[in-house]
Amino acid sequence: MPNGLERLDNPVWHALxxxxxxxxxxxxxxxxxxxxxxxxxxxxxEPDAGAWADAAKLVGPGGFMVITGEPRTPPQGWxxxxxxxxxxxxxxxxxxxxxxxxxxLTTADVPEMLDLVRRTKPGPFGNRTIExxxxxxxxxxxxxxxxxxxxxxxxxxxEISAVCTDPAHRGRGLAARLVRALVAGIRSRDEQPFLHxxxxxxxxxxxxxxxxxxxxxxxxxxxxxxxx
Length: 228
What we know:
Elements (H helix, E strand, L loop, with lengths): L10 H6 L7 E4 L2 E4 L7 E2 L6 H11 L4 E6 L8 E14 L11 E2 L5 H11 L14 E6 L2 E12 L2 E9 L8 H15 L3 E7 L3 H10 L1 E5 L2 E7 L2
Parallel strand pairs: 9-10
Antiparallel strand pairs: 1-2, 2-3, 4-12, 5-10, 5-11, 5-12, 6-7, 7-8, 8-9
């Protein structure tokens, strides 16, 4: 069994109480990323009334957060406006390899990254998401046409996220190349890669399985809004 596999049961909790604690906003025992970094929040695996009260204080009236892991049933005063089943996948023999065409993206690239995200919808991505880790891109004629990066980091593990390719350039293996380059970088830090996908994204899941990822868990992504 990979080291620290149990941390993936509640990855946001372990990220914001570990390697990414400097990116956390806190109220009591609940933490979240700054909203322009990521919408994810960290609750205990079995939150009690006090934890839900901390969460409400943290997001504020009418505020929202996304949690993942085992489904939680929020108390009165919370609205679940999205409840998406997903998969969590871990490395089961992925070939990591640096890519000569992949470039490290910086804050100067954020406008282009946001534009690519708007057109491809790989998942939540904000103005400061790039602060979470390494983001790699591939360009053609100067334009950013594909990217992938690192999101949650917890002891021993780094999540690969924001994998997307401009529709006009799909089918050329660009996403797989970027994922392999990220895998190589993650392993160079003696960490292990993992990733998430919603179950409806069957094409991406099939690609990751062909690359050597396997489904480890089937978490739920819950988007919750506090009473206004």
